[in-house]
Amino acid sequence: MIELDNKSTLHVDENFLNKITITLTDKEIELIITDDAEMQAINLAHRGIDKTTDVLSFPYEAMPMSPLGSIVISENFVKQRAKELHHSEDAELSLLFIHGVLHLLGYDHEVDNGEMRQKEKELIEAFSLPKSLIVRSEG
Which domains does the chain have, with CATH numbers? Predict the structure, then answer.
């Protein structure tokens, strides 16, 4: 299940995101959707990078009954990328959410041997979504 903190004007299909969540984990996930200014501040505070980004994931310490972690998504990135790629904002939000959840689960496309890319591909197909962030880069 997700715990949503929507600080944006985006429509969020919580039922759909919960279906994705249930296929990956039985733990709760906090989902925050915010603007570029807050995203930049979070990115600077936690990663030392002074710019906005599309999605950030913050895993929690593994303990019984604890949530899996928090995912923060930029409203502006969702809107911009959905427009650029000619698909819905719901689809783009779902793609970024999947990307974030996989990071919470320990996947890391920057250092793995394609495992995250493969898992993301499987989920995209299972949920009939357009190509995602890392799948797009396969060319």
Answer: 2-136 (3.40.390.30)
Beta bridge partners of 31: 4, 71
Calculate the dihedral angle through the C-alpha atoms of 43, 48, 50, 56, rounding to the nearest 10 degrees: -20
The four Cα atoms 45, 51, 52, 56 give a dihedral, to 10 degrees, of: -40
Q: What percent of the chain has pLDDT over 90?
A: 76
Burial 12-50 (b: 16+ CB within 10 A, else e): beeebbeebbeebbebebbbbbbeeeebbebbeeeeeee
User: Whole-model pTM?
Assistant: 0.90
Q: Rounded CA gap, 86 and 43, in Å?
A: 27
